[in-house]
């Protein structure tokens, strides 16, 4: 019996390296395709989980000097007449007149901090120093009187707090140190 050996050609090392690299890249590409496809099928959080966009009122008149307006009779009367609809409006007065109903309805939710401070300052000034003007404006913008009630309630609470603090301070002064 004659056994003949067939000579197997030697496989080149470069061929093996290239072949292994091609297999590796093929596996990587297939894995990437599978991963990409499975990521697309994952549940995504609903778009409503993001904080809602809060539109603010225009702030271009935030730097108006309120003390100057409140301190000058003529300027203040012009603004009151504008808001009442009995006189002409400046651009900032017109914007204010258009904004007040929404600001009152939403408790100034779209106001910037500066606008909230300014609105409180002006309304408190009118309630305390110009009640006739406030009453006319209140009939138009706050007929139920909710803002005045809240302001006066808060003012009463502030007086009570100040009285308690003052009384406590005086009582603490009389306590001898141990």
From TrEMBL:
Alphabetical list of Pfam families matching this protein: OS-D
UniProt keyword RNA-binding, yes or no: no
Membrane spanning stretches: 21-39
Keyword annotations: Membrane, Transmembrane, Transmembrane helix
Domain of life: Eukaryota
InterPro entries, per the entry: A10/PebIII, OS_D_A10/PebIII_sf
PANTHER family: CHEMOSENSORY PROTEIN-RELATED, EJACULATORY BULB-SPECIFIC PROTEIN 3-RELATED
Protein name: Uncharacterized protein
Originating species: Glossina pallidipes (Tsetse fly)
């Amino acid at each position: 019996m004659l056994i003949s050996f067939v000579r197997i050609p030697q496989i080149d090392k470069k061929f093996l390296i290239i072949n292994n690299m091609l297999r590796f890249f093929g596996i990587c590409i297939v894995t990437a395709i599978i991963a990409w496809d499975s990521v697309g099928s994952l549940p995504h959080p609903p778009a409503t989980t993001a904080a809602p966009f809060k539109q603010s009122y225009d702030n271009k008149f935030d730097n108006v000097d309120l003390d100057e307006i409140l301190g000058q009779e003529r300027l203040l009367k012009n603004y009151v007449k504008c808001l009442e609809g009995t006189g002409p409006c400046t651009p900032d007065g017109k914007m204010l007149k258009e904004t007040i109903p929404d600001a009152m309805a939403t408790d100034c939710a779209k106001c910037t901090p500066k606008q909230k401070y300014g609105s409180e300052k002006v309304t408190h000034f009118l309630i305390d120093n110009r009640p006739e003007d406030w009453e006319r404006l209140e009939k138009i913008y706050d007929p139920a009187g909710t803002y005045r009630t809240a302001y006066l309630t808060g003012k009463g609470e502030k007086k009570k707090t100040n009285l308690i603090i003052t009384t406590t301070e005086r009582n603490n002064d009389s306590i001898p140190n141990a």
